[in-house]
Write a structure and sequence with these properties.
By secondary structure, this protein is mainly beta. Helices cover 12% and strands 60% of the residues. The protein contains one helix and eight strands, in the order αββββββββ. The strands form two sheets. Strands 4-3-6-7-8 form a five-stranded antiparallel β-sheet, with no helix packed on it. The chain has a three-stranded antiparallel β-sheet with strand order 1-2-5, with no helix packed on it. It is elongated and about 60 Å long. The mean pLDDT is 89.
């Protein structure tokens, strides 16, 4: 029968060895898609307003960071561009509630564009395009 001191020493040796190991490199590529869910329409303050939740879904098994976002209305003539810090973990969903996009034109093309870098170092972009005609919205 081993003494508790010997068991403790063996346990500490295993823990120390585990701490010295380098983590395995992340391989593969994230697959992130953007969906606009719970979309509703209202005409407010002279603009056609589309309220929604933005849902980023990762299905490639690799986590990803979204670092920049750009939303354009008026067929790309009016844009808002910002640095962001969104994280979508591997095989998970990031749901952002309460967003909206507003345009003065009933018929418009609205674009959402995001820049992504995954945990394996792959960089890519996500696009979502909406064609609007008042209350009618078609996703491309």
């Amino acid at each position: 029968m081993r003494s508790s001191g010997a068991i403790l020493a063996a346990s500490l040796a295993l823990l120390t060895a585990a701490c010295d190991e380098e983590p395995a490199p992340v391989t593969g590529k994230a697959k992130v898609v953007l969906d606009l869910v719970d979309l509703s329409y209202a005409f407010k303050d002279g603009r056609h307003t589309y309220t929604h939740n933005r849902q980023f879904t990762e299905s490639g098994g690799v986590g990803a960071n979204i670092s920049r976002g750009k939303v354009c209305v008026r067929n790309g003539e009016e844009c808002v561009d910002a640095l962001v810090a969104y994280r979508v973990d591997a095989s998970q969903v990031l749901l952002q509630k309460g967003h909206h996009v507003a345009t003065p034109a009933a018929k418009d093309t609205i674009t959402l564009h995001y820049w992504v870098k995954d945990d394996a170092g792959n960089e890519f972009e996500i696009h979502k395009v909406l064609k609007t005609d008042g209350e009618k919205v078609v996703f491309e």
